[in-house]
Design a protein that fits this description.
By secondary structure, the chain is α/β, with parallel strands linked by helices. It has 8 helices and 9 strands. It has a single domain, classed as Spore Coat Polysaccharide Biosynthesis Protein SpsA, Chain A, CATH 3.90.550.
Length: 241
Amino acid sequence: MPEERALVIVPTYNEAESLPLVVPRILEQDKRIEVLVVDDNSPDGTGRMADEMAADDPRVHVLHREGKLGLGTAYLTGFKWALERDYEFIFEMDADGSHDAKHIPEFLAAIQDVDLVLGSRYLEGRVTVVNWPMSRLLLSYCANIYARVVTGHRLYDATGGFKCFRRRVLEAIDLDEVHSNGYSFQIEMSFRAWRKGFRIVEIPIVFVDRVEGTSKMSGGIVREAVWMVWLLRLKRLFRRI
């Protein structure tokens, strides 16, 4: 039986300081793992740096996009690339170092028995977030409660961006129908997997706020998440998802 390969998709925009630290940490976790950097034409040279890493290591791959097109579309581009190349396990992971690559073996162990593994910062009420201001933490924690109440799913951390899909989950979801692009993208992908009956498990992770670069959070991202959960609820009620 051929070895099941894993791909970690890392979207980037101005992550030249953190990317050289993050990619080696990912690769050292398991020999089956490869990395796909999806760069949105970062003006700080992140894409060029990713190309240099790819030239030195065949387990590193790079896709260049024409501009800052958003987190959701970056992941969708990466998902399609992965499905075309027969990866069995497909990860989402931030480029800023907030997701600790040491959790990857835990994801790979958990995914053996389920279809989607979510790295949770709030599992069963336990908060495992480091260095966030209280305002940001409350916004995130309450946003997850809000999403859970509105959509009806039972996930503690639907907005988290550290997760691992089996390929069959992404094959079953019509990726062209996924229109969220900010943090609501994370809610929508997990919601669609839940609605299709896939087995989902959350595992605890420690989330550490970035120490390099600047956050991509904006008011527009928050507003998109507010109305997107109601759209998902309506689609569920009318059996569109």
